[in-house]
Design brief:
The protein is an alpha+beta fold and about 550 residues long. The chain is built from 18 helices and 18 strands. The structure holds flavin-adenine dinucleotide and 2-acetamido-2-deoxy-beta-D-glucopyranose (3 copies). The site of one 2-acetamido-2-deoxy-beta-D-glucopyranose has 2 residues, from loops. Its cofactor is FAD.
Length: about 550
């Protein structure tokens, strides 16, 4: 497909001058030279074709008559000069809202813990810090006008190169839009701006005795959490981002501001626009506000720590909890290596067995309900050869345990730096499989890590069949790690699973996405992308390729 603005403009110019030329030549039609005749004939043919094309409704060059957009059918995007956008924005924003120090550009391109790294030239020209939805709209209007790539950014904790600027453009950091706008405690919902972090929100909701489900990486914010459709330790019980959004305010590629829904918990009013933006990784619009579903905190909740002789005992236990319909509030698995890293990191005051361990949240509205669940949990754990079973003895210990789980990646990296190599690299990746296949899949990954001789841990939000490998490696061993990850993904697909349960696709998993979905499904995503963002300016090259010349997979 041709660059749209370009073709539209030249066409309009041509059509609008047509009547003059035809009239001018009309009188000379039979008396002039052969050249004039051919010229007129040519002109006639040309205009007829264009008239014919315009008569088709909609014109074919704008909307190919197919339901999908294949990579082979399109041409490379042509982008404009980001400096023009920056210059224009300097007129409407204040100086402190446009930053281009080396450090700012670097933190908005990559992180040490990402699996996919930016090349040294993959940097934004500037980072813009809007104060409001209207300012985000101004930024996008300017980017649309000059066809300049634009990458949204909130917490910067995503792991697959999600916010790496692959094209010369700008980044939009929403960190100034960090306010909780309204809590409707009686309706169990809250409206927030995009840069409210899930931890900030959790603290804010404490006094209401309410909680928001999704809890991804420390530092992550609602905008990016919508972007990656994240989940976390609470998902098996309270759902992922997809189940927890009531409505969104989104700025579209050309600066149009939309709201997807009103505030009721359910609605059958038209398309599910929330679903369109959740998990779109900043490729379809910039989320500026969100109304989120809240849950009442369980009145009684215990945290149990159960260790097992083998990881397959631990994962079979989880599968049986699920198969028996035992509704736990969280089910986290940490392998022996992870327990060692947690232990060594000093994140917890108590030291734990360095053995495969389940951390469970067992909660309910009555003491009896919790007690009956605890009995079930104990019975099933025993049947699966548990080593030890203990409860967190205080609120402080519960917090500490859950925190240790949240910072598992940092503990792993610290261990690697201290005991393996100062320049240790980390690869943190996830897949999800049907629960009955969990045990086999994660044991295979663990064994392959061991046989390859690389260090690292397996952890998982195993209640929904989701497990992570955090692999530590020296730079020269990267190919070995790539092989392990490839096998982990292949294994998940063979088990009818997904190439990513919660981290998303970004740059790192685009190739794998093609393994999971039929080509037509990805071509449909591309069609949607082109319909909403015809100049391909919003976070280009993420999720799937938008450029036939792109060799990035
Ligand atoms: C230690 C650690 C633990 C983690 N644990 C989990 C976990 O348990 N579960 C889980 O799901 N993930 C986990 N993650 C991954 C990460 O935290 C999530 O992907 C999170 O949702 C990213 O949010 P963010 O604010 O950091 O987004 P960013 O990294 O800033 O952005 C993520 C994506 O969303 C886009 N985006 C950002 N802001 C907007 C916006 N306003 N509108 C539209 N698009 C936007 C970006 O362009 C990018 O594509 C973990 C990461 C770390 C480092
Ligand atoms: C945005 O907010 C900052 C900080 O409050 C302020 O300095 C700046 O002037 C605001 N920008 C505009 C365009 O009003
Ligand atoms: C835990 O870590 C400490 C050091 O912090 C170490 O001495 C101990 O052997 C580790 N293992 C166990 C099971 O406590
Ligand atoms: C692999 O497993 C064996 C047996 O449990 C263990 O002795 C060895 O240290 C492991 N290797 C690595 C690299 O972890």
């Amino acid at each position: 497909m041709e660059d749209l603005a370009h073709s539209t403009c030249s066409l309009v110019r041509f059509v609008s001058t047509k009547p003059n030329i035809v009239t001018k030549n009309d009188g000379k039609r039979y008396s002039g030279s052969t050249v004039a005749l051919y010229f007129t004939l040519g002109l006639f043919l040309g205009t007829s074709i264009i008239t014919y094309k315009l008569a088709k409704n909609p014109p074919e060059f704008l909307f190919p008559h197919s339901s999908t957009t294949k990579l082979a059918e399109i041409s490379s995007p042509r982008y404009g000069d980001p400096d023009k956008v920056v210059k224009e924005l300097k007129n409407v924003l204040s100086a402190d809202q446009i930053r281009s120090t080396k450090e700012t550009l670097e933190t908005h391109s990559d992180s040490s813990f990402s699996t996919h790294h930016a090349t040294p030239d993959q940097r934004p020209v500037a980072v813009i810090f809007p104060n409001s939805t209207e300012e985000v709209s101004l930024v996008l209007k300017a980017c649309h006008k000059y066809k300049v790539p634009v990458v949204p950014y909130t917490g910067g904790t995503s792991l697959e190169g999600h916010y790496t600027p692959t094209r010369k453009g700008i980044s939009v950091d929403l960190s100034r839009m960090n306010k909780v706008l309204a809590v409707h405690a009686e309706d169990l919902d809250v409206t927030v701006q995009a840069a409210v972090g899930w931890q900030t929100l959790a603290n804010y909701l404490k006094s209401y005795n309410l909680m928001f489900g999704p809890d991804p990486g420390p530092g992550a914010c609602i905008g990016g959490m919508v972007g990656t459709s994240c989940s976390g330790t609470n998902a098996a019980r309270w759902g992922t981002m997809k189940e927890n959004v009531v409505s969104l305010t989104v700025v579209l590629a050309d600066g149009t501001i939309i709201k997807t829904k009103n505030r009721p918990r359910k609605s059958a009013a038209g398309y599910n626009l929330n679903g369109l933006f959740i998990g779109s990784e900043g490729t379809l619009g910039i989320v500026t506000e969100a109304t989120l579903k809240l849950n009442v905190k369980p009145k009684y909740e215990n945290v149990a720590v159960i260790s097992f002789p083998t990881i397959s005992d631990a994962s079979s236990t989880v599968a049986q909890f699920v198969q028996h319909g035992i509704q736990l509030d969280a089910m986290e698995l940490l392998d022996d290596k992870m327990m060692k890293y947690v232990n060594v990191s000093g994140q917890t005051t108590l030291k734990y067995d360095e053995a495969p361990t389940l951390m469970l949240k067992i909660g309910g509205t009555t003491k009896e309900a919790v007690k009956s669940q605890i009995n079930d949990v104990k019975r099933i754990s025993k049947e699966n050869h548990q080593n030890s079973f203990r409860f967190a003895s205080s609120d402080a210990e519960r917090e500490e345990l859950w925190n240790a789980r949240k910072v598992a990646l940092w503990s792993t990296i610290n261990y690697g730096q201290e005991y393996i190599d100062k320049d240790i690299q980390v690869w943190a990746t996830d897949v999800a499989v049907p629960i009955s296949k969990l045990c086999e899949c994660l044991t295979t990954t663990k064994n392959e890590m061991n046989e390859t001789g690389v260090a690292g841990a397996i952890v998982g939000h195993v209640g929904d069949g989701n497990y992570h490998a955090m692999i530590l490696f020296k730079r020269e061993d990267r190919p070995k790690v790539e092989r392990i990850v490839r096998h982990m993904v292949d294994g998940a697909l063979k088990a009818e699973g997904t190439v990513t349960g919660e981290h998303g696709v970004g740059m790192g998993k685009r190739g794998f996405l093609k393994q999971e979905l039929p080509p037509d499904a990805i071509d449909l995503m591309r069609k949607i992308k082109f319909a909403l963002d015809p100049y391909r300016i919003l976070n280009p090259d993420k999720v799937f390729s938008i450029d036939p010349k792109d060799k990035g997979e």
